[in-house]
Amino acid sequence: MQVSEIMHKGVTTVQIDASLKHVASIMKKQDIGSIPVYKNNRPVGFVTDRDIVISCVAHGKSPEKPVSLAMRNEIFTIHENQDVVDAIKLMKDKQISRLLVVDEGERPVGMLSLQDLSENTYNDGLKADVLTKIKKS
């Protein structure tokens, strides 16, 4: 099964200089908890609603500060035509719960999450293995 068959199609991205307030408003409006961060046309990080709260709000930082203060500087991608097993391996190896899915031109086309894997992996043994090993840390 290919990643494109189970991923969330479409992805919202923000630029590295976007304000925390702007990013949070996008998350609220679209009912999403994470957004890839780009610098021009290149992914440079990833931010979750939790990152914003823990890294910035809890420390009294202004909501007008850039998202770069809250984002994680690592982002992992997978191609939409790759096998789901490749995604599982990457998520296990990196201990992450989301991947940015890109097309052949490296353009973002979707997101793949643990929830997507859980809902679309029909082998119960594999499903349990995926969830426990990825969320180990």
Please render the helix and strand layout as text.
Layout: E1 8-9, E2 14-15, H1 20-30, E3 34-39, E4 42-48, H2 49-55, E5 77-79, H3 84-94, E6 98-102, E7 108-113, H4 114-120, H5 124-134
Parallel strand pairs: 2-3, 5-6
Antiparallel strand pairs: 1-7, 3-4, 6-7
Q: How would you describe this structure in keywords?
A:
137 residues, alpha/beta, CBS-domain, four-stranded mixed sheet, 5 helices, 34% helix
Radius of gyration: 15 Å
Alpha-carbon distance between the two ends: 27 Å
| Helix content class | 25-40%
- Overall strand count: 7
List the domain count as a whole number.
1
**Element-level helix/strand string:** EEHEEHEHEEHH
The H-level CATH homologous superfamily, spelled out, is CBS-domain
Report on this model:
By secondary structure, this protein is an alpha/beta fold. It has a single domain, classed as CBS-domain, CATH 3.10.580. It is built from 5 helices and 7 strands. Strands 1-7-6-5 form a 4-stranded mixed β-sheet. α1 (about 20-30) links the parallel β2 and β3. The radius of gyration is 15 Å and the shape is globular. It starts with 7 loop residues before the first strand and ends with a helix. About 25% of the residues are buried.
In short:
This protein has 137 residues and is an alpha/beta fold. The protein contains 5 helices and 7 strands.
